[in-house]
């Protein structure tokens, strides 16, 4: 083999070796950059390449869901509270009415002369009292009886003094004496009429 041919073989071998080495280096560098980028996007302090922008993701979703849920919960609790208070108030009112009716029944059993004094019967008197409690749950039976008797005594000469008018005054928070004065009686007259009604009622139940 001559020197020229041997030189070509050596040159070709060196060239192949150089090309193979260059290809391996480039491939390794490519894998290194790719892996580094992966690690950076996974949890490093890099530029977050390939991941969601800051503030986007699970945390933000939970925050929004919590706010929306809390808003609905607040409205639900407020509505439930209002309904509960409404039911409680209605229940207390019914309890007061029932207590007053029981007291009236007791008075009518113990003093059967009350209806006769008021020129009525026990059933009608009880029914009228129960109707009055619908607008004034705290109305006492004694006040109802007094209002009935005073209206009977005064209506002929004071047409404005009716049981309904007296009960309306009591329901507004006025006392019996104040209500009679509101209806046109003087303070002295209202006191005298209250005393007269009390005497007649006591006399009738003995």
Secondary structure blueprint with pairings:
Layout: H1 3-43, H2 58-110, H3 113-117, H4 122-133, H5 141-154, H6 163-171, H7 176-182, H8 187-205
Keywords:
206 residues; mainly alpha; 8 helices; 0% strand; rod-shaped
Describe it.
By secondary structure, the protein is mainly alpha-helical. Helix content is 78%, strand content 0%. The chain has helices spanning 3-43, 58-110, 113-117, 122-133, 141-154, 163-171, 176-182, 187-205. Helix 2 (58-110) runs antiparallel to helix 4 and helix 5 crosses helix 8 (187-205). It is rod-shaped, with a radius of gyration of 49 Å.
- What value does the average pLDDT take? 76
Which structural class matches the secondary elements? Answer: mainly alpha
Radius of gyration: 49 Å
Main sheet specs: none
Low-confidence stretches: 34-47, 55-67
Distance between the termini: 158 Å
Tell me the series of helices and strands, N- to C-terminal. Answer: HHHHHHHH
The coarse overall form would be rod-shaped
Percentage of residues in helical conformation: over 70%
What percentage of the residues does DSSP assign to strands (E)?
under 5%
Please give the number of β-strands: 0
Continuous helix count: 8
